[in-house]
Specification:
7-stranded parallel beta sheet, about 475 residues, 17 helices, Rossmann fold, 10-stranded mixed beta sheet, UDP-N-acetylmuramoyl-L-alanine:D-glutamate ligase, alpha/beta
Length: about 475
């Protein structure tokens, strides 16, 4: 599912209008989508007191059209609360104000009545720059105090990112927006529904270097597919995990077991202490890991950061296999300035800080630009872990992962992800990009199942492997 920035959405609107679709029609279609959601979700509407809060921009114009359609189509006399004076409306919003007045189907009030049961938030959309101000800010606070009312946001909850409105449902228009997923307050959008407003899909397309997508189950299901009846263990690749220095064998063990659970045909773990390995895992010495004949080499879980780790990492980077780098391997690579071209990196924000030279706060402040920029500059793939993990490819394409929860913030969770990526890539070398995206989705979905059954507080890394089959089943629903 394609996700747009505010600038991309404005450009899509502009192209549609220039092609001959009037802006007023787009606004009317937007109102229809919102009204349809309200009518379906909150029927019968005559039992509700509906209030529509409108700003002075196009988002407010959508709200004016919503109020009119509620009256004309459903006979519901909604209250309209304005965040501006009527003479401040311009363009299509002004036209909708005039139509609303002529329809005589709504009341215009100064404040939100305390009896409101449904509030439509059409105050501020994607054009907001900085914190809300003036009457719009006052109405945001009024909406927040109406605890008993259901809030339906138009496109974005007003003031998102500034302690703004919390909606039960948000009807976003044309396509989801970046803020719905990457804002620190994205949860305030509630359930997200995408409403088509008549913009041709071709106008939503951009160059691949600008693509931003949200992973959906159908992409994951396409990677998992159905296994051939005549398959054998050699069909699904051989993964080598290099890590597990003294006292850290568990990290390598989890990565290896995750690769197996993902479906890799063979997995070898080169580590210091081989006693912690599951019986299904082959083992090798960490002093001389067998790099030949492996489809994927995952390096870093429990590797250490000493001179031996550097020598091992140099040897791995020289190998012909696909390289997945995590944990200590990223720390060593950052310290030594090693080339990461062609590698798949799985950093958490602290490791991304070391790779880029930015502070962790700077990484977190603009995760999208940091991940995309590093992937482009270093010709590598970056899986930037965290809430809404980002997968950035060398050509600039980025995927947002919608699965996962805070319960996964536990030691070893990243090692499992490394193994899942390695295991899926080993099976799908020709579709390795899709395999990386699928692995991240499955990792988070398994975590969601674990948290639902065990609670977020009780989830441990190996629980992700326990619930991985449920995640795979979800992809096929």
């Amino acid at each position: 599912m394609k996700v747009l920035t505010a600038a991309q959405m404005r450009e899509a609107d502009r192209r549609a209008i220039e092609a001959g679709i009037p802006g007023l029609i787009l606004m009317e279609n937007a109102a229809m989508r919102v009204v349809e959601v309200i009518a379906e979700r909150y029927a019968p509407l005559e039992e509700h007191h509906i209030v529509v809060c409108c700003g002075k921009g196009n988002n407010g114009g959508d709200g004016l059209a919503i109020a009119r359609q509620l009256g004309v189509r459903f006979g519901v006399r909604a209250d309209v609360v304005l965040a501006c004076e009527p003479q401040e409306f311009r363009g299509d919003a002004l036209t909708n104000w005039r139509m609303l007045v002529l329809s005589k189907c709504c009341r215009v009030t100064r404040d939100i009545p305390p009896t409101a049961t449904i509030i439509v938030d059409a105050l501020l959309g994607t054009g907001l720059e900085g914190a809300p101000r003036g009457r719009a800010a006052e109405l945001i606070e009024e909406i927040k105090r109406c605890g008993g009312a259901k809030v339906v946001a138009v496109d974005l909850p007003s003031g998102l990112g500034f302690d703004g409105v919390r909606a039960e449902v948000t009807v976003t228009l044309g396509a989801p927006k970046v803020e719905h997923y990457l804002s620190a307050e994205a949860g305030r959008a509630g359930e997200l529904i995408v409403g088509a407003i008549g913009i041709p899909s071709a106008f939503l397309d951009e160059e691949p270097s600008h693509w931003l997508n949200v992973t959906e189950p159908k992409q994951v299901a396409a990677v998992l597919g159905t296994r051939a009846r005549d398959a054998h263990k050699g069909t699904y690749g051989h993964v080598l995990v290099v890590g597990g220095a003294a006292g850290k064998s568990g990290a390598a063990a989890m990565a290896g077991l995750a690769a197996l659970r993902a479906g890799a045909g063979l997995v070898t773990v080169a580590c210091e202490d081989q006693r912690a390995m599951a019986p299904e895992l082959m083992t090798a010495s960490l002093e001389a890991p067998p790099l030949e004949g492996k489809q994927v080499v995952a390096t870093g879980p429990g590797l250490g950061t000493d001179g031996r780790a550097l020598a091992l990492l140099r040897a791995v980077l020289a190998a012909s296999a696909v390289k997945v780098l995590d944990a200590d391997a990223l720390t060593v690579a950052a310290a030594e300035g090693l080339s990461l071209a062609g590698c798949i990196l799985t950093p958490h924000p602290g490791e991304m800080s070391r790779l880029t030279g930015l502070t962790t706060a700077q990484v977190q402040a603009d995760r999208l630009s940091v991940a995309r920029g590093f992937a482009r500059e270093h010709a590598c793939t970056v899986v930037l872990k965290g809430h809404r993990t980002l997968i950035a490819f060398p050509d600039g394409e980025v995927w947002i992962n919608p699965t996962g929860n805070p319960g996964m913030a536990t030691g070893g969770s990243g090692d499992v992800l490394t193994g899942l990526i390695a295991g899926l890539v080993s099976q799908e070398p020709e579709r390795w990009r899709e395999a990386v995206v699928a692995a991240v989705w499955l990792h988070g979905c398994a975590g969601d199942h674990a948290a639902a059954e065990l609670s977020e507080r009780c989830v441990i890394a190996t629980d992700l492997l326990r619930f991985l089959p449920r995640a795979m089943a979800d992809a096929h629903l």
